[in-house]
Amino acid sequence: MTDIQAAFSDPQFVARYTEGPRRFVPGYDAMQSMASILLAESVPSDGQVLVLGAGGGLELKAFAQAHPGWRFDGVDPSGPMLALAGQTLGELAPRARFHQGYIDDAPEGPFDGATCLLTLHFVDVAERRRIASEVRRRLKPRAPFVVAHLSAPDGEKERPLWLARYSAFLAASGVEPEQAAAAQDAVSNHLQILAPAHDEVILREAGFSEPTLFYTGFAFRGWVAYA
């Protein structure tokens, strides 16, 4: 477990979590809105959606507010983050079931759609392939899978440039310069960042079709693909 992953069980980090994504992820709210729209193209009004990395509950709340008939299974390895998700959902919480653990702890489905937002950069390539395959197995035919995470070109000059741009975004968002530099270092040295083409290959190898880029925010990218 990395120091970043361990933070998700730290009470002080968890208490401040909901303030973070909008400052640390370019276009965070728009990305969530786009993910919701992409799901809704295929998920019926009474659909069941699998949400991996559901801790904190921000995307669950966004999806639940936009689609009153949807129900959710949220999976996350951190108990404190799942508790926070319940608090974030508030009166919407009865529409979600929470499962502490990883993809193997998710219900079998079949689901009408699935998301995995800001999570896959915490695991290595082999585990990404396995997660994608297990999600695919739990989806109905042609169901959408929406993913977004750190993904940047791996060229000797391109990768540092994109990470520097990300650090500049943090500073422009009000993050202290020292904290922005530390975040860039953590992203560069402790997370599993792949080139966008590699991310698309993993989705195809897992059995998904038509992986289509819908979101780019400096060092972050997002795709929709279909079971």
Count of discrete alpha- or pi-helical segments spanning 4 or more residues: 10
Would you tell me the overall average pLDDT? 90
* CATH fold label: Rossmann fold
Low-confidence stretches: none
Percentage of residues in helical conformation: 40-55%
Fraction in beta strands: 15-25%
Rg of Cα set: 17 Å
CATH top-level class: Alpha Beta
Q: What count of domains describes the coordinates?
A: 1
Total count of strands: 7
CATH architecture: 3-Layer(aba) Sandwich
Question: What's the CATH H-level superfamily name?
Answer: Vaccinia Virus protein VP39
Largest sheet: 7 strands, mixed
Q: Which secondary-structure class do the elements indicate?
A: alpha/beta
Categorize the overall geometry.
globular
List the helices and strands and how they pair.
Elements: H1 3-7, H2 11-16, H3 21-24, H4 28-40, E1 48-52, H5 58-66, E2 71-76, H6 79-89, E3 96-100, E4 113-117, H7 125-137, E5 144-150, H8 158-172, H9 177-190, H10 196-205, E6 209-217, E7 220-226
Parallel strand pairs: 1-2, 1-4, 2-3, 4-5
Antiparallel strand pairs: 5-7, 6-7
Helix pairs in contact: 8-9
